[in-house]
Specification:
Largest sheet: 5 strands, mixed, barrel
Structural class: alpha+beta
Shape: rod-shaped
Strand order of the largest sheet: 1-2-3-5-4
Helix content: 40-55%
Radius of gyration: 27 Å
């Protein structure tokens, strides 16, 4: 009995881990565990089971992952933050990188702002949001 139960339990646990993460992480090792389980069923010694586990896992990862990754596209949903990039904003507090000040209003939200080019941008200026870094938007005068 010995290692048959071990490999079967490993296979089930790895499949469950893959189902929980859906990140194409555990499935390759589940294939290796299945290969090792079959080797154990055929009476192969433990060291052969380990080699089969490693080889099948590596082959599945190397050969199947690129094909599966192309077909299974993980959808990336834009967040509220992504929507402000390339939008026009109004400077509500002077943007000055040197003093660490600056607020802009964009799409009804107030964001901490920094100047993309490092220049001071006075309050009341229309700016374009170029990028987001953490909780700050980087802007340029329009």
């Amino acid at each position: 009995m010995g290692f048959k139960v071990f490999w079967l339990a490993a296979f089930i646990a790895l499949c469950a881990g893959e189902a929980a993460t859906v990140g194409l992480v555990c499935i390759w090792f589940a294939a290796g565990a299945l290969g090792a389980f079959l080797t154990a069923m055929l009476g192969g010694p433990f060291w052969v089971q380990l080699i089969v586990f490693a080889a099948v896992s590596a082959l599945a990862l190397a050969l199947l992952r690129p094909a599966v990754s192309r077909r299974v596209k993980l959808r990336r949903s834009p967040t509220n933050a992504d929507r402000v990039v390339d939008q026009t904003a109004l400077v509500t507090e002077t943007v000055d990188n040197g003093s660490g000040t600056g607020l802009v209003s964009v799409l009804g939200q107030t964001w901490t702002a920094r100047s993309e080019l490092g220049v001071v941008i006075p309050a009341g200026t229309q700016v374009k949001v170029r990028r987001i870094e953490g909780v700050k938007v980087f802007v340029e005068a329009v």
